[in-house]
Specification:
The complex is a heterodimer of chains A (168) and B (197).
Chain A lengths: L7 H7 L1 H11 L7 H11 L19 H24 L64 H14 L3
Chain B lengths: L2 H10 L1 H38 L2 H17 L10 H19 L5 H11 L7 H20 L2 H10 L6 H8 L3 H25 L1
The chains are: A mainly alpha (168), B mainly alpha (197).
């Protein structure tokens, strides 16, 4: 950034000394004999050698070089495009890429969540308390006697037996 | 006549073509000599305004014409020889100025005292004028490159803003805006220097 004070009104008058100086320098005469010195320098300058001259039909001025260059560019571009087109196979089925099976990492952080369980040595076993199962009362069932039909006594006896077996 | 026959005929006509080439070369040389006579002094002034050294400016002019000699085949395609030559010498002097080390202002003073027109001036007045011009040129050197170039080229009365634009490869409106900025900056610089004194 320029921090020089700026006054547009003063620019026309204040810049005139600068332009006067520049005009004075621009109007300084060239030293005498400049043209002759330049001419002698041109005579001494090495000229571009021409071993063979172009035949009239092949002169670069005729513009055939431009045409040839344009044709070469078109040929290269078209040939490149054709080469790419022929290399690309049409209707190519999509390749199925089989992913390799994921191998468990041997080292690193693969088993970072594992909990180490220390090996236990075989030692004396503590006696386990034995549960005492209370004995179940054994109910003795009387054999059921089947009474013969027709006899009252027998039927009464049968009823009594059935009443004894039936649950209360 | 087929193409191959035409080519062979073209090769076979070597004596005629050699004569034609010799004539063409002579014509090119005379055209170049005419360019030297016509524009050497203008190119010298352009070169001197940047380099501010007589020998360097003369070298730059010679180099410009040597470049023209190398590309003399394209002389016919050039529309405005003057602007084309000024553009060549302008590029040469900018390149030289970039490569050269910055010279002290005292060199500019002594060089200006030597080349300034001294008619009607005493030795003291001439020395004071040279010092003033050297000081102004020092302020010009402080300008940004773009503005400085336009300001320097605008000092050549024979160059219009269109031609300056053509030399610098910019638009005419850019030339005008850069010239406006350069004048404002120069005014500020000169005021600043004056206030310091």
């Amino acid at each position: 950034m320029n921090s020089i004070p700026h006054d547009p009104r003063a620019s026309a008058s204040a810049s005139s000394p600068a332009e006067e100086t520049l005009r004075l320098i621009a109007s300084l005469p060239a030293p005498k004999g400049l043209e002759e010195r330049v001419q002698s320098a041109l005579d001494a300058a090495p000229r571009r050698g021409r071993v063979l001259t172009w035949p009239r039909t092949l002169r670069p001025e005729s513009g055939w070089m431009r045409s040839a260059a344009a044709a070469a560019i078109v040929f290269v571009v078209a040939g490149g495009g054709w080469g790419v087109y022929t290399r690309v196979e049409q209707n190519q089925p999509a390749k199925v890429i089989v992913m390799p099976a994921r191998m468990p990492a041997i080292e690193g952080f693969g088993e970072a969540g594992a909990i180490r369980t220390p090996q236990t040595l075989p030692g004396p076993k503590a006696p386990q308390p034995v549960k005492v199962i209370p004995a179940q009362p054994v109910t003795v069932k009387k054999p059921v006697t089947i009474a013969k039909p027709g006899s009252d006594g027998a039927s009464q006896t049968g009823k009594a037996a059935a009443a004894a077996v039936a649950p209360k | 006549m087929s193409t191959s026959q035409a080519i062979v005929a073209g090769w076979m006509e070597s004596p005629t073509s050699a004569v034609n080439d010799e004539a063409r070369r002579r014509a090119e040389d005379s055209a170049l000599a005419a360019l030297v006579d016509q524009y050497a002094s203008a190119l010298y002034r352009v070169a001197y305004s940047v380099l501010r050294n007589q020998a360097d400016a003369e070298d730059a002019v010679q180099e410009a014409f040597v470049r023209v000699l190398r590309h003399r085949d394209s002389l016919g395609e050039v529309r405005d020889h003057r602007v084309w030559l000024i553009r060549i010498v302008w590029n040469i002097v900018l390149d030289r100025k970039r490569r050269a080390k910055t010279r002290p202002e005292t060199d500019d003073v002594s060089e200006l005292a030597r080349v300034l027109p001294s008619t009607g001036l005493s030795a003291e007045e001439l020395a004071a004028a040279a010092q003033h011009h050297a000081h102004v040129l020092g302020c010009v050197d402080q300008l940004p490159a773009k503005e400085r170039q336009v300001l320097m080229l605008s000092a050549f009365e024979e160059l219009s803003s269109v031609e300056i634009a053509s030399v610098l490869g910019i638009s005419e409106s850019s030339v005008r805006s850069r010239l406006f900025r350069a004048r404002n900056l120069m005014a500020g610089l000169l005021d600043h220097e004056r206030s310091l004194r």
